[in-house]
Write a structure and sequence with these properties.
By secondary structure, this protein is an alpha+beta fold. The chain has a single domain, classed as Aminopeptidase, CATH 3.40.630.30. Helices cover 36% and strands 36% of the residues. An eight-stranded mixed β-sheet has the order 1-2-3-4-5-6-8-7, sandwiched between helices. α1 packs antiparallel against α2. The longest helix is centred in the first third of the chain and has 19 residues. The two termini are 24 Å apart.
């Protein structure tokens, strides 16, 4: 479904392909390097994890939503089905040029709706303390931090957090 926001055509599509996997990897490298100063350890982990997601993707339990702005891929979020009605959200980002339109929240809420539609009852995800704007949104959406640990190997001062919510 397409809609206009601030004069831009916005569309969120559920899709997966080798091109999408490359987009996820390259976007993570670009955004997390430039904006949050993450290092090669993080990029190697992201490349491996996203590659495995693409290889093992199961449309019955997994999904990827891509946000388009004026026909250009600008954001993503994926869900990976886990045991006991749990789903893990991963690979969430929005390129800088797509910010300020509430598209990040729209994309995240679309993922939550997709989780419900697929029959999941509990969402969890990992994120980092450095992503302050996103963390504020997670809190407003009712997610809470249930664990954390230092991840200095990926970036100075990085703390990885686990956020969760029943849906």
């Amino acid at each position: 479904m397409k809609e206009l926001i601030n004069g831009h055509e916005i569309e969120i599509k559920s899709e997966i392909s080798p091109e999408i996997i490359d987009f996820l990897i390259e976007s993570h490298k670009s955004i997390f390097s430039k904006e949050f100063h993450f290092n090669e350890v993080f990029f190697e982990m992201v490349t491996k994890t996203i590659g495995e997601f693409g290889r093992d993707f199961n449309a019955e339990k997994d999904f990827t939503l891509i946000a388009y702005v004026d026909g250009v891929k600008m954001g993503s979020i994926s869900g990976i089905g886990r045991e006991n009605g749990n789903v893990q959200l991963r690979f969430y980002f929005l390129h800088e040029g797509a910010r300020g339109m509430k598209l990040g929240k729209k994309l995240f809420v679309a993922a939550m709706d997709k989780c419900k539609e697929m029959g999941y009852n509990h969402i969890f995800f990992h994120t980092f303390n450095k992503l302050e704007v996103a963390r504020a949104m997670y809190e407003k959406l009712g997610f809470t931090v249930t664990g954390s640990h230092s991840e200095e190997a990926v970036a100075e001062g990085a703390i990885e957090e686990i956020w969760e919510k029943d849906i």
